[in-house]
Amino acid sequence: QVQLQESGPGLLKPSETLSLTCTVSGGSISNYYWSWIRQPPGKGLEWIGYIYRSGSTNYNPYLKSRVTISLDTSSNQLSLRLTSVTAADTAVYYCARSKLLFSPDNPFDIWGQGTMVTVSA
Amino acid sequence: EIVMTQSPATLSVSPGERATLSCRASQIVSDTLAWYQQKPGQAPRLLIFGASTRATGIPARFSGSGSGTEFTLTISSLQSEDSAVYYCQHYSNWPYTFGQGTKLEIK
Known about the structure:
Shape of chain A: globular
Structural class of chain B: mainly beta
Helix content of chain A: under 10%
Order of helices and strands of chain B: EEEEEEEEEEE
Largest interface: A-B, 21 and 24 residues
Largest sheet of chain A: 7 strands, mixed
Oligomer: heterodimer
């Protein structure tokens, strides 16, 4: 059974860089598309971007200038990097898998438990 | 970007009754529509994909319908554990977007 676990610093100061890791266990990271999704406290869900094993990525246009998603197939991990954070980036960050092999245009069938990141001076 | 609009924002229904949640897309998304259930402190859980196909392990009281731009999630015979926020999401093409959610309360 595939499981996802996010990890990373929970508190950042404005202008710092957010770096999170998602470890995939119980299955291979290859052949699927993997996304990062975030949820500000009390608000809805926002897709950040996805990555495939080939290194192919696409990002939410609103965040594209600040976001980098990378993949390490040898350690079955994906990472998120978000630069120049502000209070508006305070959220629970989730990693999630696209349901079907080889295609990004799929629902998210497996989610991590999420990790809370707070941006505050 | 495709905007997803859900209604109502909050819905209060008695146990055993039916709940009907709506989702509208600003552009045609065909049947590339998913519904998720999120309980407090938990990650979203996939309920419905392809507008009407239940995900693995989802009870039959959850059903989805619609195509194009108008979609509905119906929960028949509500149970107390169905209290949650429900989100629709299109996956027609990126950027994938979610509705703002419908909070379902069980009276």
